[in-house]
């Protein structure tokens, strides 16, 4: 009789253990299903059109432009943006022919690298003043290039410098 009671208790314990294992597997399957659904949607990037900046006026009074009162070309770079490092030399070449200003947000060696590329051919704004100018203008992606009128109004904006030049020549 003792053997029969021990066997029933053992079967009962095994059933409870099996039930707990089943709940754990069901929970894991639910998590995987949610992850698969998320992956099926794909990665979504928020689109950003710098054209929304056209018509805004740059806050010139708040910036020190190092002798360039009214730059025609303004570039917004971020130190941690790889595309900014890629486009900075192209901006430097373009800036040699016109009044230009580079706004470089971020700090550290990568920011210093950007400053080295664009300094000398454009005025450069960095650190907190750059961050405040980014917020004041409403730049949400980097790099952003602006063509600015003499009154400080943004007349064209694009994330590609070549496209900005095409926009200016089309007008």
What does this structure look like?
The longest helix has 40 residues, at 2-41. The chain has helices spanning 2-41, 82-95, 109-118, 127-137, 161-170, and strands at 73-78, 100-105, 123-126, 144-148, 154-158. α2 (82-95) runs parallel beside α3. It is built from five helices and five strands; from the N terminus they run αβαβαβαββα. The protein is an alpha/beta fold and 171 residues long. β1 (73-78), α2 and β2 (100-105) form a beta-alpha-beta unit.
Considering the chains and any ligands shown, give keywords for the structure.
171 residues; alpha/beta; five-stranded mixed beta sheet; 5 helices; 5 strands; rod-shaped
Span of the ends, CA to CA: 100 Å
The whole-number mean of residue pLDDT values reads 87
Strand order of the largest sheet: 3-2-1-4-5
- Succession of helices and strands: HEHEHEHEEH
| Category from helices, strands and their pairing | alpha/beta
Largest sheet: 5 strands, mixed
List the uncertain runs. none
Total count of strands:
5
Please tally the helical runs, counting DSSP H or I stretches of 4 or more residues.
Answer: 5
Using the CA coordinates, give the radius of gyration: 29 Å
Structural shape: rod-shaped
Q: Classify the beta-strand content into a percent band.
A: 15-25%
**Helix percentage:** 40-55%
SSE order and pairing:
Blueprint lengths: L1 H40 L31 E6 L3 H14 L4 E6 L3 H10 L4 E4 H11 L6 E5 L5 E5 L2 H10 L1
Parallel strand pairs: 1-2, 2-3
Antiparallel strand pairs: 1-4, 4-5
Helix pairs in contact: 2-3
């Amino acid at each position: 009789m003792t053997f029969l009671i021990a066997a029933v208790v053992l079967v009962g314990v095994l059933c409870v253990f099996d039930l707990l294992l089943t709940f754990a597997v069901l929970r894991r399957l639910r998590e995987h299903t949610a992850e698969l659904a998320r992956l099926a949607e794909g990665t979504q990037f928020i689109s950003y059109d710098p054209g929304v900046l056209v018509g805004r006026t740059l806050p010139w009074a708040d910036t020190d432009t190092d002798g360039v009162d009214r730059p025609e070309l303004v570039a917004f770079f971020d130190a941690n943006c790889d595309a900014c490092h890629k486009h900075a030399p192209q901006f430097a070449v373009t800036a040699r022919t016109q009044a230009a200003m580079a706004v470089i947000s971020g700090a550290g060696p990568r920011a210093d690298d950007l400053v080295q590329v664009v300094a000398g051919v454009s005025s450069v704004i960095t650190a907190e003043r750059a961050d405040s100018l980014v917020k004041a203008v409403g730049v949400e992606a980097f790099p952003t290039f602006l063509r600015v009128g003499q009154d400080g109004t943004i007349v064209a904006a694009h994330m590609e410098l070549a496209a900005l030049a095409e926009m200016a020549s089309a007008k």
